[in-house]
Amino acid sequence: MQFYSYLKEAIAMKFNYLYFITIGLFFLSCESTEVKQVETEADPLPSWNDGELKELIIQFVEKTTDIQSNDYVDIENRIATFDNDGTLWSEQPLYFQLAFAIDRIKEMAVDHPEWNEEEPFRSLLENDMDSLKKQGVQAIMKIVTTTHAGMTTEEFTQLVKDWTTESKHPRFDRAYTDLIYQPMLELLDYLRDHNYRTYIISGGGMDFMRAWTYDAYKIPSDQVFGSTIKTKFDYNDGMPVIRRLAEIDFIDDKEGKPVGIHRFIGKRPIFAAGNSDGDLQMVQWATSGEGPRFGLFIHHTDGEREYAYDRNSAIGHFDKAWDEALDKGWSIVDMKNDWKVIYPFELKE
Amino acid sequence: MQFYSYLKEAIAMKFNYLYFITIGLFFLSCESTEVKQVETEADPLPSWNDGELKELIIQFVEKTTDIQSNDYVDIENRIATFDNDGTLWSEQPLYFQLAFAIDRIKEMAVDHPEWNEEEPFRSLLENDMDSLKKQGVQAIMKIVTTTHAGMTTEEFTQLVKDWTTESKHPRFDRAYTDLIYQPMLELLDYLRDHNYRTYIISGGGMDFMRAWTYDAYKIPSDQVFGSTIKTKFDYNDGMPVIRRLAEIDFIDDKEGKPVGIHRFIGKRPIFAAGNSDGDLQMVQWATSGEGPRFGLFIHHTDGEREYAYDRNSAIGHFDKAWDEALDKGWSIVDMKNDWKVIYPFELKE
User: Fold this and answer.
1) How does pLDDT run across A265-290, given as a tens digit for each residue?
2) ipTM metric
3) Cβ(B139)–Cβ(B105) under 8 Å?
4) CA B202, CA B252: separation in Å to the nearest integer?
5) How far is A264 from chain B (nearest CA, A)?
6) Most buried one in A9, A284, B282, B306, CB count within 10 A?
7) Which residues on adjacent β-strands are paired with residue A231?
8) For residue range A134-148, what is the model confidence (pLDDT) as tens digits?
């Protein structure tokens, strides 16, 4: 960013005293050609192959943050929302949160011998996935509420943290939190470097994500929204806790995503990224406002380095959103051709 | 803040590039004694009378932001939550949001002649507050849903904005948004200057507040949470809107406040301020965690400059929370004696 436009932004921002300290120090500093060093920018998206898509992203960020551009957006409105499963990390062979739930059931089964006779636990413990699928949504709900409720919020966070350090993805034999997308990390950083706020708006469980999203993506809990179960305040004799109840509160998917965005952020995003039909309404909402807008879909085309799936996949079903992306001219990442690496660990190999 | 601790904080913060530009400029700048100018701080709370309470607040902020203190709190956990009605602005002779609803009913009545015969509208239009009170919560709910639902979120925001510029408080003959507390504005600024994030957690309507809280308090929509009604995404032939439905979603009061804080922020605040029994659970939650904690209640003691009320008032009922504040040693503002001015306009008179 030009230092000139940085100054203008500082004035536009009004209240952030850090800016004023920066400006103060700038004026106090003697004339020095070295100041130009801070203006030099390297490739902000090094894991993205050069091409039209990368160029479009960079153009969008530059024009929305250059005060002299007609498409300039003030800092308060630089809101970018991201789906999580399949957009920021992998979601195959099944949603990682479901893998967590299954691991929990297996762990809890030691204290529940009756589960050997009781569905859906019996099928799950015998790895009878066909039988499990036939039991439908009710079975999944029972597994989720059994594993995600009945403890305090702090206990649940600890369970998720333990799981992310102890469990391994079956194909990659790595922690699930290693399977985040390096190019998306760069995109998140690039947006934040230009004073965008980056939010997760996911169909996945809000508290499940918050246990690890700061370490993985540098996204703090108050910028992570997802599906929720009901909770209850318990004074607990002066040592208050919040207890997780076995009742769904809000499903943050499809039409739920714009509703969740309104509740959680209160502004319409100007940039939204997803990978499946569950993200369609979020991208419709973000891209239909006035001024510059960016809609982005991740197309999973790389069966070798990750997974290849779209219209025929139950997980990450990408069908109506694909058609509409083509129709409306939203950007589509072709993972195989647009991304130099998929995961951060590839950079170290 | 000492520049040394500022540098340490910058490192702790990791990701904010503004810090690094600041640091870069600092090292690029020649030696200059003038740099010390940025360290000088004036009284951060000029509208607070000197005394124990003011000293306690300043001590708390200093110790939690001085990296060399045992009570240092990293930036990610500097969360401060504030009630709104009676804590950041006045709430008498009745909640300002209720005044908005009543004004709306009177405006809408032109198109609803049947309301002259229909309760609770008849009582309201005839200013028969006794009859209205007898009709209880159901009547209030009907007034709220009639005036707060049935439009898009953008239309509702505009209605509130129009009301805040056009309507006047009956006693002060000023816009309701002029009746915010100058000492609390200074406290919000002071906390933010030390990298606290300041949230509103109010029993009042979330969208009602978001229409004006940024202008009034510099608190953006994604840091304003309150009670909500249900909303629904409507694709609306490619011009999507979010519609407000006549159904309560969440009451952010009493036990609801810690639940709302968990959902909206995902961290336990270390500083919480309220003024009534509706804030008790929020302050219990904030003050019972580990490490340094600050609980603050505003006691309305100034009938001349504002209003005097506590245990016997239906609005801003301050009874159990008062007892517990005394018992637990939470801080209590005595408005009459602790505040030099109540409202910002007094400074200009």
Assistant:
1) 999 999 999 999 999 999 999 999 89
2) 0.86
3) no
4) 6
5) 6
6) B282
7) A244
8) 888 788 888 988 999
Reply yes or no on whether the pLDDT at B180 is more than 50.
yes
DSSP-derived secondary structure for A49-87: PSSHHHHHHHHHHHHHH-TTSTT---GGG-EEEE--BTT
Phi, psi of A210, deg, nearest 5 = -60, -20
Q: Would you tell me the crossing angle of helices A280-287 and A256-264 to the nearest 10 degrees?
A: 60
Contacts of A214 in chain B (CB under 8 A): 76
Nearest chain B residue to A328 by CA: give it.
Answer: B238
Q: Tell me how far apart the alpha carbons of residues B346 and B327 are, in angstroms, rounded to a whole number.
A: 34
Sign (positive/negative) of CA torsion A224, A225, A229, A230? positive
Closest by CA to B254, choosing from B317, B211, B313, B180, is: B317
In degrees rounded to 5, what are phi and psi of residue A309?
-165, 155
pTM, to two decimals? 0.87
Tell me the CA distances in angstroms from B228 to A4, A209, A262, B208, B256, one per residue in order.
42, 24, 11, 10, 12
In order of A49, A295, B78, B141, the CA distances from A319 in angstroms are 25, 16, 43, 42
Q: Are B241 and B221 in contact (CB under 8 A)?
A: no
Rg of chain A (C-alpha set): 22
Interchain proximity A288–B264, CB inside 8 Å: no
Among the partner-chain residues A14, A210, A281, the one whose CB lies closest to the CB of B233 is A281
Type of residue numbered A220: P
Residue ranges of domains in chain A, CATH in brackets: 3-39 (no CATH), 52-93+177-348 (3.40.50.1000), 96-166 (no CATH)
Angle value at C-alpha A70, between A66 and A75, nearest 5 degrees? 50
Q: Are A125 and A348 in contact (CB under 8 A)?
A: no
Tokens read off for B267: 């961290």
Would you tell me which residues 266-285 of chain B have a C-beta closer than 8 angstroms to some C-beta of chain A?
Answer: 266-267, 281, 284-285
A308-325 pLDDT per residue, tens: 999 999 899 999 999 999
B106 pLDDT above the threshold of 60: yes
Please tell me which of the candidates A28, A189, A220 has its beta carbon nearest to residue B35.
A28
- Is the bond into A120 cis (omega within 30 degrees of 0)? yes
Asked if the C-beta of A255 comes within 8 angstroms of chain B's C-beta atoms, the answer is yes
